[in-house]
Amino acid sequence: MIKHIAVLSGKRGGYGAMKPLLNALDKDTEIKLSLILTDQHLNREFGNTHQEVEQDFTIAGLIDMNQKSSSELHRTEALGNCMTKMAILLDELRPDILVLYGDRGEVLSTAVAAVHLRIPIAHLQGGDLSGNIDEQMRHAITKLSHLHYPSTQESAERIISMGESPSRVKVVGDNHVDGIVAEAYTRPPKVRSVLNIGKDISPIIFLYHPETTRNRDVKDDTHQILKVVSEKKIRTIIVYPCSDAGYKDVISAFDAFRGEKQFSFHKNISAENFWGLLNIANLIVGNSSCGLIETPYFGIPAINVGKRQEGRACSSNVIHCEPVQKELNEALDQAMHDTNFRNTAKDAKKIFGDGLAWRRIYEDLKSLEITEDLFDKRFV
Q1: pLDDT on residue 276
Q2: Same domain, 252 and 165
Q3: In which domain, by residue range, is 152 found?
Q4: pTM to 2 decimal places
């Protein structure tokens, strides 16, 4: 039986998604939980969110990747730092299994370190599609992992098509919706107070990350989107991007809009407050996966800009467009004023599960026996 489980978290959204599972593991007196934090959690540009996590759990290790800038070179160098430091920490911890979530570079670096230390990996959210470098990372992590907990049946089929044994794959749903279905989000009065949103106002949420597989002017794209949003004169909550190469270009585009009263800028919003924000929002615009995964559970429109999420499963509440003025205006007008579309968004199908992914993963890990067969992977 498994006695020691390590879990990695590298970003704010992933931590919020994992929290129900972390709580279950932490409360189990028969299991030792080792929670490792890295990347955005230790970066002051993203709010030093390790401090938030440390209020909830004991931390087994903090891995500072020492990312010097948002250049491609410095991001790559930081991922190398992550692998080296993570190998040392994992060798000290020696967990029975390592739980990895998602598709980012720090997750891949950790997976490479774990495999070389013969630490088995359970991977969550594998098999998804997207138009960013994350997809390449995600599929590489899949091939390094020993157990797979995908969000949907389609994702499970992709994992199997990559040569993974069906016996290693179990569809559980997406952890991002676990806390939402459990209604573990901040209620309207408090979230309005925390984020300074008027009583009867339904704000726009802006969350835009760099595109890393297209040769785009990220700063200009960000400016174009915010310019169109600005013209709507609606209270807008702007959330800082992730740590992908080019993130400083997104942030620098904010400077032209910092004087506008309807805009407020946030390095980090906790998962509970962010879900509470979605609960009162008019719509979300940008290219974050939360626009596709989480918004159907609140029945609000999502405008997905560009190719970062290209191919990812989504519901009927999502409008796709490019970061050009005409398309953005049309998308915003439809999302804000088309009654038929807003009704469609309200009733959008909830395709990412029933909110019990954490329980399925927890119970499966609890019953797992670590044997040599687990390590003996073959292309099926």
Answers
A1: 98
A2: no
A3: 4-181+355-371
A4: 0.94
Tell me: do 209 and 61 sit in the same domain: no
pLDDT at 46: 87
Scanning the chain, the segments in alpha helix (DSSP H) are 12-27, 50-54, 72-93, 105-116, 133-144, 153-161, 178-181, 188-195, 218-231, 247-253, 271-280, 290-293, 325-337, 339-346, 357-366, 372-375
Q: Please, what is the angle between helix 12-27 and helix 271-280, to 10°? A: 120
pLDDT for res 215 = 79
Measured CA angle at 48 (ends 42, 50), to 5 deg: 70
Residue 379 lies inside a defined structural domain of this protein: no
Q: CB count, 10 Å around CB of 166?
A: 12
What CATH number does the domain containing 312 carry? 3.40.50.2000
Domain match, 361 and 279 both: no
Whether 287 and 219 map to the same domain: the answer is: yes
Residue 277 within any structural domain of the chain: yes
- Asked whether residue 76 is domain-assigned, the answer is yes
The amino acid present at 67, given as its one-letter code, is Q
In a domain, 324, yes or no: yes
Q: Do 95 and 149 fall within a single domain? A: yes
- 146-160 pLDDT, tens per residue? 999 999 999 999 999
Question: Cβ neighbours of residue 130 under 8 Å, at least 6 residues apart?
Answer: 103, 138, 289, 308, 309, 310, 311, 312
pLDDT tens for 87-143 read 999 999 999 999 999 999 999 999 999 999 999 999 999 999 998 888 999 999 999
Q: Are residues 202 and 128 in the same domain?
A: no
Query: Could you write out the DSSP letters of every residue in 37-66?
Result: EEGGGG-GGGT-THHHHHTTS-EEEEE---
Per DSSP, the residues of 84-121 read HHHHHHHHHH--SEEEEESS-HHHHHHHHHHHHTT--E
Q: Are residues 132 and 232 in the same domain?
A: no
The set of residues, in sequence order, having a beta carbon less than 8 Å from that of 289 and lying 6+ positions away, is 130, 176, 309, 312
Tally the domains of the chain: 2
Q: Is the pLDDT of residue 318 over 90?
A: yes
